[in-house]
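Ticket opened by: R.M.
Priority: normal
Category: complex prediction / small molecule

The reporter submitted a protein together with magnesium ion and asked that the result be attached to this ticket for the collaborator who will pick it up next week. Submitted input follows.
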Amino acid sequence: MRVNIGFSLPFGALAVATSVPLHYLSPMKFLDEAKVYIRSGDGGNGCVAFRREKFIEFGGPSGGNGGRGGDVIVEVADGLNTLIDYRYQQHFKAPKGGNGMGSDRHGANGKDIVLKVPLGTQIIDDDRETLIHDFTRVGEKFVLAEGGNGGFGNAHFKSSTNRAPRNANPGQPGEERWIWLRLKLIADAGLVGLPNAGKSTFLSKVSAAKPKIADYPFTTLHPQLGVVNADGREFVLADIPGLIEGAHEGAGLGDRFLGHVERCRVLLHLVDATCEHAGKAYKTVRAELDAYAETLAEKIEIVALNKIDAVAPDELKKQRDRLKRAAKKTPLLLSGITGAGVPETLRALVAVIGEAPVSDKAKGAGAGQDIETPVAQAKPWAP
Ligand SMILES: Nc1nc2c(ncn2[C@@H]2O[C@H](COP(=O)(O)OP(=O)(O)OP(=O)(O)O)[C@@H](O)[C@H]2O)c(=O)[nH]1
Ligand SMILES: [Mg+2]
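Result attached by the on-call engineer:
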C-alpha cells in the first residue's frame, strides 16, 4: 500500500511530499494484510524392488508405495490478533511424502503444516479479489492445498498375468500458490470521518482506550478498538483512520481500512463543527464510503456534529443546518472534549446496535484496548 502525502506527517525527517510505502511510516505492531506463498508436499515415489533371499526362489515384487505429501492448513487460533507473524515468514512449504522402499516398506506421509491466523481473517487469491475462505469461528480449519498422493510401488502392480512388474508410479506434485491473508476487525460500531474530526478523542472519552490524539491529520494510522459501557450495555467501538477526498484512489491513507468497517454493524459519522462546511465534509466521507462498497453505503449511520464547544451558537446553528441538509436527518450534537452530548450519542448507538447480544469480546473485556488485544474471541454479528 502506498500513501500520497502532501503535507507533513508526525515523523519529523520523514515529512515527505512524494509517494511513500506505508510500512515505512506505520508502527510495526499492526499488520492486517500479508502475502504468503504456500506449497503442499509432493507425494513420495513408488519403489521398484524384488525380494531376494537365499533359498527363496521367485521372491516377487516388493517395492512399497510412496507416502502422501503434507497439506497446508489454515486455522483460526484463539488469542491471536494480528497477522504480524507473516511479515517475518512468507513462505510455507509442507514436507514431501517419503519414497517407498524395498521389502514392502511404504514411505511416511509428510506432516501437515498449519498456518495460525486470527479470527476475522479472510484468504484471498493472488488477484487480491477472489475470496477463497472467510473464517468466522475460533478453531475453524481450512485445507488450502492438499499434499500430492504417493506413487504406487511395483508390488501394487502384481497380478496373475504380470508376476514381476518393473514399473512404479512417481508421487504426485503438491500444489503451490500465492495468497493474501486479510484481517478485518470485528467491532459493533465504527467511527468514520475526515481526519481531525475528533474520532480518537471520542473513543478515548467513551472507553479506556488510549489512542494518540493530535491536531494534525492522520494521527491515527491503524484502527483501534475500545469497549464502551453505555447504560449497562457494552459494545466494541472501532476508531478508523481518517478519510479524505479521493481515498478510494489512494489519497491520504487510502481506503483499505474501510475493510474493517465492513464488519461493523453501525457507523458513527463524526463531522467537525469547526470545519468550513459541515455538509461538504459529510458528503466527502459518504462519497468515499459509497465508492468503497455497497455494503458500507447501506450501513446504519448515526451522524453527529462534534466539537460544539469550539464554535459560537450562530455558527453552530449554521453548521447543523448544513449537515442536516446533507445527511437528510437531524445530526446529534456533541463534544468529545467536554462530554456534552456524548451519553445521548452512546444511547443512540446502543439502540441501533440492537438487542442482540454483542460480541463475546465486549462481554469479557472491561477496558479499552487497541488491536493488540485478543480480537480473536470476538464473534461477528449474526442477524
Ligand atoms: N474543541 C474541541 N476540540 C476537539 C474535540 N475533539 C477533538 N478535538 C481536537 O481535535 C484534534 C483532532 O482530534 P483527534 O481525536 O486526533 O482526531 P481524529 O479524527 O482521530 O483524527 P485522525 O486520527 O487524524 O483522523 C485534537 O487536537 C483534539 O484535541 C472537541 O470536542 N472539541
Ligand atoms: Mg485519530
